[in-house]
Amino acid sequence: MSEKVTVPKEVAAAIEELREKGFSRYGVIHQASGAVFEGPARVIKRWAFDKEGGTPDRLMLALVNGYEVEQSPEDKIREYYMRCERERIKSAGSESREWLAKTVAIKTTLLFLGIKIEGINTDLKEANA
Predict the structure, then answer these.
(1) One domain for residues 33 and 78
(2) What is the DSSP letter of 118?
(3) Residue 94 has pLDDT above 90, yes or no
């Protein structure tokens, strides 16, 4: 079975940008290993060659076997919030109130921190405004 590598969002976006420009898997590695200037190749280089979480071997595995994009903290909170909402809806009585309290706590925390996360305390129109 092939091992999929988890890469940060910015690395995934950089790989996709180079692939859309016509670079092969080898071309992506070659561009990244020699990158000096800012741009997609430099993003990959920082991750794979400058040891910001990756290695050249992990980059090769990602290019050959595919990769998954690492969830951002916002993505993780949104996923947990949605799970709490689903559980609240299907629960009854005191259990439902416990799930409601969790969703309220998440929204209150985000309010105090001044953080907006689409799907929790903002909708798409507000996020793009």
Answers:
(1) no
(2) B
(3) no
Q: Kindly report the number of other CB atoms within 10 A of residue 108's CB atom.
A: 11
Q: Which residue shows structure tokens 């992990």? A: 58
Q: What is the mean pLDDT of residues 82-88?
A: 92
Query: Do 58 and 24 share a structural domain?
Result: yes
Residues 103, 88 share a domain = yes
Report whether 120 contacts 77 (CB < 8 A): yes
Nearest 5°: phi and psi at 69? -90, 130
Specify the pTM: 0.64
The residues with which 68 forms a beta bridge, in sequence order, are 6
For residues 63 and 2, the answer to whether their CB atoms sit within 8 Å is no
Q: What are phi and psi of 23, to 5 degrees?
A: -75, 135
Helix, strand, or coil here: 23? Answer: coil
12-48 tens-digit pLDDT: 999 999 999 999 999 999 999 988 788 999 999 999 9
50 plus 92 within the same structural domain = no
Query: CA dist 25 to 1, 22, 58, 113, Å?
Result: 20, 10, 13, 41
Domain total in the chain: 2
